[in-house]
Structure formats: structure tokens, C-alpha cells
Amino acid sequence: MINKESHGLLSGGQAVVEIFKSKSTKNVFGLIGSSTMELFDALFDNREINFIDVRDERTGTHMADGYSRASGQAGIIIAGQNGPGATNLVTGVAQANAAFSSVISIAGAVTSEHKGKDTFQEVDQQRLFEPITKKTYSVNQTDEIPKLMNEAYSVALQPRCGPVHINIPRDVFANKIKFDDFENKQNINLPNASKVDIEKVINIIMSSSKAVIIAGGGVKNTNGHQEIIKLAKILNIPIVSSAGHGDIIPSDVEIYAGQMGPRGNVVATKLVKEADIILAIGTRLGFNSTFFSYDNINKNASIIQIDIEKSAIGRYFPVKIGICADAKNFTKQLLDKISSMKKITNFNNWTEKLINERKKYLKERDEKAEINTNPIRPTALFKILRDVLPKNSSITLDAGTLCLQSTDALNYFEPRCLFTPLDFGLVGFSFACGLGVKIAKPNKPVISLMGDGGFGMTLSELSTAVQHKINTVTIVMNNQSWGAEKAYQRDFFNGKFIGSDIKSPPFDKIAELYGAKGFRVDQVSEIKHAVKAALNCNKPVVIDLNVDPSALYSFRRDSFTHRIK
């Protein structure tokens, strides 16, 4: 702890680093620039903070995003340059905002006296970031740094979490003053359900014959999976997860059906479409899970919705009862009450039906895997990954047709092991996110799935991976196209392809040039060997996998119903 009596003058850059230290921040991502040199000079003097220098501010933000989601801590990204350095952050911050990820982005800003004078590289960074953050700050005086930085951490980590952006002028970084104590304790306030609400929920559940639990990101982010499993087993009712959160419940839990909705599987979706009571815990019942349509959820079901954000309750579907509460705390409260009850509604027939249908679905999923065809079909890759990947693996995905097919086609055994950009639909996310996840989980395998278009956007970060020995495995499902768009052109525009076919260099060779390890896979029979070798390589690995260009699926068919004849 630093105070003004025991230390001399400190620059604004040194003050920021002292805040990092007071928050036990161990890893910081960033790209240097002239407007933040005092900050980087202070990082040089504090080597206990690991600085990961990136090649692009956008991909650096994805790293910070992945790190935050995997660790539960704030992910820090520094844009060293005002103007273009700050604007390069925008896509990554918007992605973090859609995913409710605790990213703190810091950007240099023009010197205070030049603000508003159309100076070199000036842009209104305050207005730029306000719509895509939980809160945006502009520091005006050096002595404001501790207060605003402490508040930034608190806001970013307070559920519902989200990104915070801070603009700091170069003169504020450079000024030296005496500071008071930097440490500031964070108070996380989590709402609970009332006893009356718990009684109402129990009464509704007990009136049901076909209840289902939908577990969302609120369960995942609070590590509330054990409580959900225990609750479901006591009640003997099935669990499904919201889209993009298939890792909430381990795949081998018998009463877990997987992800629901258009991004999920038929068994989980059928459960939600047939249930008379839906206990939605920690989920907004948002777009990717429901498409806001009763095609994906029973119109006649009584919905009990629990969410940390009051405004999310009943936002998309009317609810029988809505409770503003922390997902894990609510589940504990419900468990405590139900555990003391002598009689519980019998859901045996309903749940037994789910278990049987789930087993049948998983068996058919393996049987339908196209393992004897070349070029490679995605189902073959997913089948082999299910067989080969260690249970402690983390998986990152891109948007796009190939990766979207994998969302519910893989197995997940640990909470916080699936990382997707589904809420923003971002291409070019997976590889960079995986690097951040690996920093948070250095001793666990991290596998990133991408299309060739998305990887082409981000391959410069191979240099970052090699330099910092971030040994992830990236599988590029190379179909020589922007697959989702090509599928739409095929299905709804009479095959009039424009801009959807792309040519890329051999990514395995590119990886080798950067100092990583590359594998080229053209046959299904080569996949298992390549993946196993990659996992044991002790280097960053890129597997360039030749995927059938015709293996395309138009996921957003709802957007083109006007073109269906």
C-alpha cells in the first residue's frame, strides 16, 4: 500500500499501476503508444504484473475478454494511443458488452489543453464508448485516478457485469503528485429472493407435471452449477441451458439435455416447448435461445424468471412470477426450503422420457457423424473432438456457420470452459479469446475453432502467442468461404455468389513462419493424430483443416422468410 507520507511524487501512470497492484491484477494486455508512455514505464518497473503486448487493440480486447470470463477477474486492455488506438478497441469492447464480460479498457487521450480543438488523432472518446460500456470515464485531473479506477473495477465486477472504459489524457499520465492510499475495498451487493417469493415458486412448481429448469449465464458466472444439479435431482426435473452456455452443467449429468433453441439441440428445445412450468434461472430468455418466438418456448407455460437485472424480467416473455436475485443465492434459498419438505411432486415419467430421448439423440449424433467422407464434413471433426479432447479442455468459438454447428455438438465438463461470441455474432474472436483463456488457465488445454475468414483477420496474434508461449490449439475449419453468407446466397438468392468465396494462404505454413507449429489435414483419418500431436506439442499450434465447402447451414432463416417462395 502506498501513501503520500511514505512515498514521494508519483506520476499518473504510476498511480494506475498501483491500482492494478491493489486489486491483485496479475495480467494486463495492451499495445504501446505515445499518449500512455508513463503508464508503460511504470509497468516496466513493476514486473510482478505480466504485460502481454498484442498486435492489435481489437484482438487484445478479445484476450482480456477471454481472460475475464475464464478467471472471474477483470480483464485489462490498454490502448496506448488516443484516436486510432482507442477506436480499434470498439469492436472488442462491444463484444464484451454483449457478453457481460468484466473488461476494463484504458485509452490515452489528447492533452487536456488540446481537447476539443481538432488536434492530431482527436476523437470524442467519451461519446464513442458510452453506448457500448456499462460506464465510461474521462479523467480530468491526476488526483482523480485512484477514485475513478477503483470505481471502474467495482462497476465492471458488480453483477450484471460488463465492460468499463477509461480515457486518460497524456498530461494526466505525466503529472506527478502525492497520493493518498490506493486500496479501496469492493462491496458486491447481490439481491436475494424473499421468503414469500420462495413459497410462491414452490407452490407453482408443485402444481406442475412437466417442469424444466433453464440455466443461463447467471448460473455460469456465479459457479452455481452444483446447486442447480442438486435442485434438479431433488425435484427430479430436467435441466437445459441457454444458447452459448452449454458448459453450465457437465455433459455427463444424466438429467441435463444440453443447449436449447435454434442454436441448440432438438431434445432440449422440445423440453422447453412442452414444459408447463419453466424455471428460468439467470437467463434473460434472449434472442439466441428463443429468437423471441413461441416457436422455441411453450406459449402456455408458466414462466418463473430469476435475474440479477430487474429490467430483464419479463422483457421478452410474460412471466408468472419474476424475482430480482442472484442466480446462485436464489437456488440455495430454494434448495434449503425444498430439502425440508416431506412431499415433492413426482416428475418421474417426464424426466425418464427426457433421459431416454437424450441417450437416443447422443447415440444418433455419433452414428450420423460423417467419418468416411472426404473432403471433411464438420460432423466428423466434432465426433473426433468429443473422443479425443481431455475433459478439462476449454473451447472457444467464432460466429459463422461452421462454428455455430459446433455449439451443441461438443462435450463440456467444467464450468467456464465454453467461450462464444453468440450475443454479438462476431467473426475473428476465437483465436484471440483463446489466448486470454490460456493465460487464465495455463495448465489446461485450450482449443479454438474458427473459419478461415475469421482466422485471417487475427493471425498476426500468432506473434503474441509465440513470444509469450501461449500454447493454444487453433483448428481452422477451412472451407474457402464466408460460410454463413454463402449459405444465405445459396438458399435465398438463387446461388448468386458475390464476395463469399475467399482465398487464403496455407495457415499451417504461416504458423511455422511465426515460430508456431502447423498441421495440414485433408483426410478424416488424419484428424485424430493431428489433434493429439497438437495437444502435446508445447507450442502454439494451428491445424489447417480442409472442410467441405458445401457443408453450409443458414442459421438465421428467420431473417429471410420474406424471400421464401
Explain how this protein is built.
Helix 9 (195-206) crosses helix 14 and helix 12 (266-274) packs antiparallel against helix 15 (348-367). The chain has 23 helices and 20 strands. With 565 residues, the chain is an alpha/beta fold. The chain has three domains: 10-177, Thiamin diphosphate (ThDP)-binding fold, Pyr/PP domains (Rossmann fold, 3-Layer(aba) Sandwich); 195-356, Rossmann fold (3-Layer(aba) Sandwich); 368-560, Rossmann fold. The strands form four sheets. Strands 3-2-4-5-7-6 form a six-stranded parallel β-sheet, sandwiched between helices. A six-stranded parallel β-sheet has the order 11-10-9-12-13-14, sandwiched between helices. Strand 6, helix 7 (145-157) and strand 7 form a beta-alpha-beta unit. The N and C termini lie far apart (69 Å). The model is unreliable at 1-6 (pLDDT under 50).
Short description:
With 565 residues, the chain is of the alpha/beta class. The chain has 23 helices and 20 strands. Strand 19, helix 23 (524-535) and strand 20 form a beta-alpha-beta unit.
Q: Please count the beta strands (DSSP E, at least 2 residues each).
A: 20
Distance between the termini: 69 Å
CATH superfamily of the largest domain: Thiamin diphosphate (ThDP)-binding fold, Pyr/PP domains
CATH topology of the largest domain: Rossmann fold
Q: Which strand order spans the largest sheet, edge to edge or round the barrel?
A: 3-2-4-5-7-6
Poorly predicted runs of 5 or more residues: 1-6
Percent of residues in beta strands?
15-25%
Question: Helices and strands: which structural class?
Answer: alpha/beta
Q: How can the largest sheet be summarized?
A: 6 strands, parallel
Main CATH class of the largest domain: Alpha Beta
How large is the radius of gyration? 25 Å
What's the overall average pLDDT, rounded?
A: 93
Task: Specify the oligomeric state.
Answer: single chain
Please, how many domains?
3
CATH-derived architecture of the largest domain = 3-Layer(aba) Sandwich
If helices are DSSP runs of H or I spanning 4 or more residues, what is the number of helices?
Answer: 23
- Proportion in helices: 25-40%
Shape, per Cα inertia axes: globular
